[in-house]
Design a protein that fits this description.
Elements lengths: L1 E5 L3 H12 L6 E6 L25 H21 L3 H4 L1 E10 L18 E3 L2 H4 L8 E10 L1 H14 L3 E4 L14 E4 L5 H4 L5 E12 L6 E4 L3 E5 L4 E5 L3 E2 L8 H14 L7 E13 L4 E7 L9 E6 L5 H22 L5
Helix pairs in contact: 1-5, 1-8, 2-8
The chain binds flavin-adenine dinucleotide.
The site of flavin-adenine dinucleotide (FAD) has 42 residues, from helix 1, strand 8, strand 13 and helix 8.
C-alpha cells in the first residue's frame, strides 16, 4: 500500500509517525510538502494548553479523546531517555486575569494535567499587576525546532521518503498512491476549497533568558513561555483573517513591553529573533475524516483522509488528531471490499 502524507509541519510529521507505528506499519510512506522549514510549526512555543474554546463535532467522545491521546503521546516521550533530543519536557506556571474567572480555568486541561489549582495570595506576588484571578498548572512543552528534526530523523531511519513539491490538486497524486493524508494546514483552503479555514496571524519574540523557569500568562494575550537552552517565547498577538507575514516592529515593541511589565527581569533578555506565523484556524472543528475519492473504481481508488485546521493548538493536538486520522483509515478499510 502506498501512502502520501501531504504536509511537513507538526501535524504531517506526527501523523507519519503514528501511521507507521500503527495500522499502516507495512505501508510505503512518502511525506510530501512545499516547505519544511519556513512554516508556522516552527513559530509555536509548543505549550500543551488547549484553549477552552477548542472543540470538535463531539466534545465528550471526540475532543476529550484527542486531548487525552495527545497528552499521553508527549508524556511517553517526556518519560523516555530521549526526551531532551525530542524537545519534550514538563513545565509549570501561572495564568492571571482580570477580565473573568473563566479565563484562568480550563475545562480541557483541568482533567488531564497533574496539577491545576487556584493560585495562592503569595503566588499573585510573583508577577507585576493587580490581578484578580489566577491559576497554577503543570503541563508539557514540545519545542518544535528539536521535535521536528528528531521525528524526521526517526521517519527517515524507518524508510519514509521525503519529497519537496507544491501540489495544486490531489489528483496529481492519485495514480501513485492508494491513500493521501492531507495535513496541509492553511494550504488546505485552496486544495479543498475550504472556506471555514481562516488564518489567525501571530507574532512572537524569542529571547534568551535562562533564569525564567516558569511560564506566565497575563490574560491570554501576553505570555512568557520558557523552552530548552534558555530560550523564552514572548507573545503574543492574534489577528483574525490576516495573512500578513511581515514582521510589525510596533507589535514586537508592544509584546516586549507587556511581557516586561508582567515579568520585569525580562528587560535583561537578549533578543534572538522575531517571528510571524499564520495559525490554520478552522471554524467549528479540526477537519478529520475521509474526503473525496480521487480515482474511482473499486479496485483502484485513492482515498483522501483529512487532518488539518488546528488553529493555535496544532503542536499539542497533533498526536490525538493523527490517531483519529489513522483510525478513520482503518474504519474505511473494514467497511469496504477494496484493496486498501
Ligand atoms: C505565534 C504562534 C504561537 C503558537 N503557539 C502554539 C503553542 O504554544 N502550542 C500549540 O499547540 N500550537 C501553537 N501554535 C499553533 C501551531 O503552530 C499550529 O497549529 C501548527 O503549527 C499547525 O501545524 P500544521 O502542520 O497543520 O501546519 P504547517 O506547519 O503550516 O504545515 C503545513 C505543511 O503543509 C505544506 N503544504 C501546504 N500547502 C501545500 C501544498 N499545496 N502542496 C504541498 N504542501 C503543502 C506546507 O509546506 C507545510 O509543510 C502557535 C502558532 C502561532 C502563530
Amino acid at each position: 500500500m502506498k501512502v502520501a502524507i501531504v504536509g511537513g509541519g507538526v501535524v504531517g510529521l506526527t501523523t507519519a509517525v503514528i501511521a507507521q507505528n500503527g495500522f499502516l506499519r507495512n505501508a510505503d510512506i512518502t511525506v510530501l510538502a512545499s516547505n519544511y522549514d519556513d512554516i508556522v510549526s516552527y513559530v509555536a512555543a509548543g505549550i500543551f494548553r488547549v484553549g477552552a474554546s477548542f472543540g470538535s463535532y463531539n466534545e465528550e467522545k471526540v475532543t476529550k479523546k484527542w486531548i487525552k491521546d495527545s497528552y499521553e503521546f508527549y508524556d511517553d516521550i517526556r518519560k523516555s531517555d530521549y526526551a531532551s533530543y525530542a524537545g519534550v519536557t514538563d513545565i509549570s506556571g501561572y495564568i492571571f486575569a482580570n477580565s473573568s474567572p473563566h479565563t484562568v480555568q480550563n475545562r480541557w486541561l483541568e482533567n488531564i494535567v497533574p496539577v491545576y489549582r487556584r493560585a495562592t495570595e503569595e503566588e499573585f506576588q510573583l508577577v507585576n499587576g493587580n490581578w484578580k484571578y489566577g491559576s497554577f498548572f503543570s503541563t508539557l512543552l514540545t519545542q518544535t525546532n528539536l521535535y521536528l528534526p528528531w521525528i524526521k530523523q526517526k521517519l527517515l531511519i524507518n524508510g519514509v521518503t521525503f519529497e519537496q513539491k507544491k501540489l495544486n490538486s490531489f489528483k496529481e497524486l492519485s495514480d501513485k498512491f492508494d491513500i493521501i493524508i492531507n495535513c496541509t494546514g492553511l494550504g488546505a483552503r485552496k486544495l479543498c476549497d475550504d472556506r471555514r479555514l481562516v488564518s489567525i496571524r501571530g507574532q512572537v519574540l524569542k529571547v534568551r533568558a535562562p533564569w525564567i523557569k516558569t511560564f506566565f500568562y497575563g490574560e491570554l494575550d501576553t505570555y512568557v513561555i520558557p523552552g530548552f537552552d534558555g530560550m523564552v517565547t514572548l507573545g503574543g498577538s492574534r489577528n483574525f483573517d490576516s495573512e500578513n507575514i511581515r514582521l510589525c516592529p510596533y507589535e514586537s515593541a508592544a509584546i516586549r513591553e507587556r511581557c516586561e511589565t508582567l515579568v520585569p527581569s525580562l528587560k535583561d533578555a537578549e533578543l534572538l529573533r522575531q517571528e510571524v506565523g499564520l495559525r490554520p484556524h478552522r471554524e467549528g472543528s479540526v477537519r478529520i475524516g475521509e474526503g473525496n475519492i480521487v480515482n474511482n473504481g473499486c479496485s483502484n481508488k485513492t482515498i483522501i483522509v483529512h487532518n488539518y485546521g488546528h488553529g493555535g493548538y496544532g503542536v499539542c493536538m497533533a498526536p490525538g488528531t493523527a490517531i483519529a486520522t489513522v483510525d478513520t483509515i482503518m474504519e474505511f478499510h473494514k467497511a469496504t471490499c477494496c484493496k486498501i
